[in-house]
Amino acid sequence: GKTECFLYPILDHLLCERETETLAKPGVRALLMYPMNALARDQIKRLRDLLAPFPDITFGRYIGETPKKYDEALREWRDQEDRDPLPNELISRDRMQVSPPHILLTNYSMLEYLLIRPEDSPLFAASEGTTWRFLVFDEAHVYNGALGMEISMLVRKLKDRVCRSEPNRLRCIVT
């Protein structure tokens, strides 16, 4: 139930965007941050189930093992899943860089890279960051001590990049 506590408000926001016809604009609306890739893998499965009836809401997992090219990603996907991905799941870096997903799953190490690599700048640049609305940290208790301080600086960099640190622009959710 914990995951649904933050996914339902995000889904509600995206469905409202669909009603007002702003969902068609590319750009990340929600970043879901997981401390470990295993958690991101587990959660992407839940997103598939939840978002299967909503093909216009896109999502993708961008971690170290995410393949760069779509053809490679599709081959790996079919080997592991024995079926094709949902049409709204972006499974490769090149697809996410061209058309950023509405919901992006990653980890703090990858987010640091995403913020500095030029090829990943489209994830943050869509509509000058006006699309960003949610930042979710799952398992936040692991971000303590020196790591917690580093994460707080990472969040500041992210907020500066996607909403110019304007108050109340980005809803932060911590579990």
Cα gyration radius (Å): 15 Å
Order of helices and strands: HEHEHEHEHHEHE
Helicity level: 40-55%
The structural class is alpha/beta
Quaternary state of this entry equals single chain
Q: Tell me, what's the shape?
A: globular
Briefly characterize the structure:
With 175 residues, the protein is of the alpha/beta class.
Key features of this structure:
6 strands; 47% helix; 7 helices; 175 residues; alpha/beta; six-stranded parallel beta sheet
Detailed description of the structure:
This protein has a six-stranded parallel sheet with strand order 3-2-4-1-5-6. It is 47% helix and 12% strand. With 175 residues, it is α/β, with parallel strands linked by helices.
Task: Give the SSE map.
Blueprint: H1 2-19, E1 30-33, H2 37-51, E2 59-61, H3 70-81, E3 89-90, H4 93-98, E4 103-106, H5 108-116, H6 122-125, E5 134-137, H7 145-163, E6 171-174
Parallel strand pairs: 1-4, 1-5, 2-3, 2-4, 5-6
